[in-house]
Amino acid sequence: MATDLYSVALPSIANYFKVEGSVVQLTISLNLVGFAVSGLIYGPLSDHYGRRPMMLIGMTIFTLASVMCYIADSIMLLILTRFIQGAGAGVAGVVGYAAIRDMYSGSEYSRVISKLNMVVALSPGIAPVVGSYIISHGYSWKFLFFIISLVAIAMLIFIYFKLQETLTVNKNITTNIFKQYISIFRNYRFLGFSAIHGLTFMWLWAYIANYPFIFESMGVEVQYFGYLISIIVIFYIIGTLINRRYVPKVGVSKMLIIGLVLPIISDSLLVYFYFADKLNIFILQVAWIPANIGLALIISNNVTSALETIKGIGLGSAVLSFCNMMFGAIGIYIVGKFFRYGILPNLLLTIACSTIAILMYSLLKYTEKHEE
């Protein structure tokens, strides 16, 4: 919500500070960097000290940074405070998934993650609509960060009183984070799934940062941005429902490969319409349907596949989160460099990332088969 609520206001923020859209996109990309780097610390520490303490520390940082975003009076300060906000939020993507993995495994874990992702998807489904409504009715973008600050405070209070520890911690065991990372980086199967995770979020975050500018270039008014993003989210939620129902029957591996193929189909169609000069907002929304369903299949099943290969769940979640955010930041940087070409860089990036991910998955399966 901290990104989705204000992402529709990116053009407004660019006008407010009199900077280019690519500069304002740094408020998203550097937020992802903070998220990624901090996750590498939260993960192993949560394995040693427990999930609850790390969650409270991270969310306190997130809450304070959210207030700082509200009072930011320059684009550089906003970029900095968004980085700090990401450093706090990094705990949720790592410790949250690790806590669930403490309780579930295998296809059951994939089903639970699908359920979680469906709930999480409500935020980008609702937040852009709220953000668009607020901006279109003359309120400043700062008001959006005021809302985020209130939600962050309420969430921190809720976590303090309601979050229970899911990990049995042995305080007598010392932890060497560097040795743990060396061990995990020797696991080629986990690294392969981590790379697939990163490649998927590379094109996803590139889209998230560019949605408002894509819609604006197609003549869509700001009050409708949120509704268009909500349609995208609805099909993502449908994808999570499909995964929950069919993953016990079809299997994690097959559902993952189906998910990787669907974005290629979607964006290849859009490339055709782009060069045929027939691309409009209706075609865009319809063609994105397979990609958003596929995205749900990828996230749930790839995370499941990755964490099945290791023992340190918190550490593994940290690496996955790092790949998620760092690759995402790189994706935003790439589309920012080719900002003048509109949606085309996003389309080509999605096709390239998904194709490489399929090749990596095929290599993993080939290697695994010959080891047996």
TrEMBL record:
Keyword Cell membrane among record annotations: yes
Domain Major facilitator superfamily (MFS) profile: residue ranges: 1-369
GO molecular function: xenobiotic transmembrane transporter activity
Topological relation to the membrane, as annotated: Multi-pass membrane protein
One Pfam family recorded for the sequence: MFS_1
GO biological process: one example: xenobiotic detoxification by transmembrane export across the plasma membrane
Location, primary (coarse class): membrane
Top-level taxon of origin: Eukaryota
Membrane spanning stretches: 23-42, 54-73, 79-100, 112-135, 141-161, 188-208, 224-243, 255-275, 281-300, 312-335, 341-364
Similarity remark: Belongs to the major facilitator superfamily. Bcr/CmlA family.
NCBIfam families per the UniProt record, alphabetical: efflux_Bcr_CflA
Name of the featured protein: Bicyclomycin resistance protein
Organism in which the protein naturally occurs: Trichonephila clavata
